[in-house]
Amino acid sequence: NIKNVNAQFDLIAIGKTDIIPPTVTIISPVNGYIITKTTRALKIKTSANDESGIRSISIYINNNLINTCAYGEPFSTSASCIYNWNNLRNLAYGDYEIKAEALDAYYNNGTFLITVTKPIPGAPAPQPGSENIISNLGGIIKGFVSSITGAYSRN
């Protein structure tokens, strides 16, 4: 014997909820840092802040987790994490993305990314703003090709 039952539920928020991610930054090295042939190690320093407290800060190099600093309750509204990246003389040439990710007390995450480079010896160093020149040049070339194509397709 089955009866229809109508029920109404009200959701009540108990306590405080937080959906705002923490603010996290990489203090050092700076974005665009060049790893020279004499650089043996690099100290990666991070900092995070959140009103509800910082649960952890993790550091990644090229998306590989290399260090996590975890904090116990009660969570502090600010925290820092340091990792010493050693043996840079044996590091392959190229760009390396360093990411800091912070989790707050409610598991919201904030991230911050930078890139450091170990250039090939003797190769010209990238000039500040050169990515804008290349991007603008790409736009000019696309516009030129488009105008040629447009002119060609109309005839």
The termini sit apart by 79 Å
Count of DSSP-assigned helices: 1
Which blocks of ≥5 consecutive residues have pLDDT under 50? 9-13, 131-155
Question: What order do the SSEs take from the amino end to the carboxyl end, as H and E?
Answer: EEEEEEEH
Radius of gyration: 25 Å
The helix/strand class is alpha+beta
Tell me what the structure shows.
The chain has 155 residues and is an alpha+beta fold. 16% of the residues lie in helices and 37% in strands. The protein has 1 helix and 7 strands, in the order E-E-E-E-E-E-E-H. Strands 4-3-6-7 form a 4-stranded antiparallel sheet, with no helix packed on it. Strands 1-2-5 form a 3-stranded antiparallel sheet, with no helix packed on it. The longest helix has 25 residues, at 130-154. The chain is elongated. Residues 9-13 and 131-155 have low confidence and may be disordered.
Keywords:
155 residues, alpha+beta, 4-stranded antiparallel β-sheet, 3-stranded antiparallel β-sheet, 7 strands, elongated
